[in-house]
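Hi both,

Apologies for the delay on this - the queue was longer than expected. I finally got the adenosine-5'-triphosphate-bound model through. Below you'll find the protein sequence and the ligand SMILES exactly as submitted, and right after that the structure tokens for the full complex including the ligand.
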Amino acid sequence: MRPLDPRLLRYARGARSILGLGAVIALVQTSCTLGFAWFVAQLVSRSIAGDPVEELLPSLWLLIGIVVLRAGTVLASDSVNARGSAIVRSQLRRALAGAFETLGPGWVSRRSSAALTTVAGRGLDALDAYFGRYVPQLILTAIAMPIIAAVIFIQDPLSGITVIVTLPLIPVFMILIGFATQAVQRRQWETLAHLSRGFLELVAGMATLKLFGRQHRQVRRIRTVTEEYRVETMKVLRFSFVSGFALELLSSLAVAVVAVGIGLRLLDGSLLLGTGLFVLILAPEAFLPLRNVGANYHAAAEGVTAADEVFEILDEAKAVRESPSAPHQVGDSATVGDSARRTSGLVLDGLGVQYDELRVLDDLDATFPAGVVTAVVGASGAGKTSMASAILGFVDATGSILHDGGRVPPTPGGRRWLSWAPQRPVLIAGTVGSNVALGDDAPDEALIVEALSALGLSALPLGHPIGAVGDGVSGGQAQRIAIARALYRLRRTPADAGTPVLLLDEPSSALDAASEALVIDAARDAARSGAAVIVITHRPSIVEHADAVLEIRLRSERVQGDEVMLHG
Ligand SMILES: Nc1ncnc2c1ncn2[C@@H]1O[C@H](COP(=O)(O)OP(=O)(O)OP(=O)(O)O)[C@@H](O)[C@H]1O
């Protein structure tokens, strides 16, 4: 772990002001430490020398003032660090949410959702120890240590040299401990992510696990991972205890050496009592912040390990933002025919999609004209949803996508013309109405009612509550609410967005024949109003009512030049 990761300053702007304020507070604290040591040494040596109390009173008042000021700086430092830590964590969480948006649903779907929520939740919370305790001590060390060491050297060169020689031993020792801890800390963090994943699977899949009698196995797995987590945590703690002990021993020995030197010179009279006392009080203060850095290192390291992962995600999103055409190559193909450029609606020209090693689509050409319902059919796994994901900008794709003759950008933004209902309906906690008008700042109630009625959901009140994962409605209702959302968005397509495109991915997979007929009517109405309608389906009844059919064959069954067939 680097003492201070520069990426933290880059991604969490709030961190800069905390560091600035922390430096000012550290400077005041160092002045207080020096003042405190000076006045205590003076008061003791002058009392022993027999100075009258009245003459000592001004120094006493100053000492009391310094003590109060020092307490004030501790209070200020605590509140700055607590507020700063909260600001930084919320800035990093916002940046992370922005990164997820940039990287897109395709990226998120390839990651473990449990690991992502652990890093964004518990992981970033662990930064509290880093900001609340570790960083302030690091700043104090950088400011107080050289000043105090210099003052000791000026007052008593011999003690100064002892302090200057022994001080670097502590950071050297800490670096060695740091190397050893890094691996255990990462293992502890990975086990935690593993544990979260196990719990998520147990909770989300409880019904299935119980039905197949696998719940005990899952519980046993969690028990094993919990044990692994305990072992890893104990390893981290062992390092923490040993390093705390060693740091304490090192600094105590160094202070003892200084104290013995001062004592001997006080005895032989070569050092004044005031100076000796001053240096003796100051010496532990030179080691204290560095010792505290070491003591807080392990608590901070968990947050830093998590922050490391956050920074990797933020860097990835930054790279995508800076070169949007690098991973997503849609729009790179050389020439697109004139007819494609003149088509109102959507044209795919040589579209290719690949997931790591798995090539799903290659060189797919298709036209989805305005006013036409096109059914997209093909065997399971042929790549129909992958084509939809490419149109949505969710996956890396090659080739070109043209909307009204203009190239569609590779990232998901800038598709005001596109309305989509996914294969698996995603409902957000709220109400039926808020789900249909999702993303609309000024929802049109009449349109919401119209979209729901078109799908036979007029009996469902707009205010009907929906839970976090679509609880509160049936599977078929959830699917129709998701389609109603697409119909609502279609009706709200801005006039200057061009030909509206309605993309429905297996819209009737959870519906009965009557509801399916309503979906077909809604798709036909949309085409009549001028939209290009694409319906991915396995249902013969939808294919029958389509104006055109695009068949995507499994890659293994494709023949060169016969990748797809379009029936008009
Ligand atoms: N995010 C992904 N990462 C890796 N492979 C994927 C991903 N999404 C889909 N695939 C693979 O791509 C292939 C095509 O999947 P796709 O979902 O496009 O098929 P589909 O034609 O829509 O199938 P279905 O009719 O069953 O919905 C499948 O082999 C699938 O396993």
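Main takeaway for now: The pocket of adenosine-5'-triphosphate is lined by residues 109-110, 355, 358, 360, 378, 380-386, 423 (CB under 6 Å).

I'll put the files on the shared drive as well.

H.
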